[in-house]
Specification:
Elements: H1 12-41, H2 61-64, E1 66-71, E2 76-81, H3 83-86, H4 89-95, E3 97-98, E4 115-122, E5 125-130, H5 134-153, E6 158-159, H6 165-172, H7 176-180
Antiparallel strand pairs: 1-2, 3-6, 4-5
């Protein structure tokens, strides 16, 4: 007759660390797959796309702004365009809506010695310097007036729904559990 004794130790902290690491890796893979699908759905072409289909990006800027980030503290992943690059335009494309009218700049009487705009870099953005002459001060006032006139003439744009993130998520919804299968080792 044979006797065998075993002793089992359960280390909960070690198991929790393994589960957290596996979840972090799986969320990263899922985020990357969804991001890639959304990226591929946006075509680089000049003409606008039909409402209901992913938007066109004539410059490719919207496509280049896609990121995904996994948060370790609160297990989750954030996927989508970065506002610093693509602005809020992506939100209007995804959900549709009306762009807000740009607010007018405050009228200002510039004086010599103050800082003010000297030339327009692009609409709404100015190169600013210390104004040294009365002509520069007059030019600064004129630039602000011209910008306010431009902002008053343009109507807020209406954007139909052109979703690209939700269809990408729906495409991978059935595959999401596969990212976690056999991930804890």
């Amino acid at each position: 007759m044979m006797h065998i004794r075993t002793r089992v130790r359960f280390n909960a902290n070690r198991v929790k660390k393994k589960v957290d690491q596996a979840s972090f890796n799986s969320l990263g893979h899922a985020g990357g797959a969804i991001r890639k699908t959304a990226y591929r759905s946006i075509r680089k072409r000049k003409n606008p796309s039909r409402p209901g289909s992913p938007p066109s990006s004539p410059t490719g800027r919207l496509r280049r702004s896609f990121r995904y980030e996994v948060d370790r503290r609160t297990p989750g992943v954030v996927i989508g365009p970065v506002n610093e690059i693509s602005g809020q335009l992506w939100h209007l494309h995804e959900f549709g809506g009306k762009a807000k009218k740009r607010r007018r700049l405050k009228r200002h009487r510039f004086r010599v010695g103050q800082h003010g705009p000297i030339r327009a870099i692009r609409p709404g953005k100015f190169a600013r310097i210390e104004l040294r002459t009365a002509a520069q001060a007059n030019r600064a006032r004129r630039l602000i007036d011209e910008e306010n006139q431009r902002r008053g003439e343009t109507k807020p744009g209406r954007y139909p729904k052109r979703p690209f993130m939700k269809p990408a998520l729906d495409t991978h919804r059935a595959q999401l559990p596969k990212f976690w299968r056999d991930s804890v080792k």
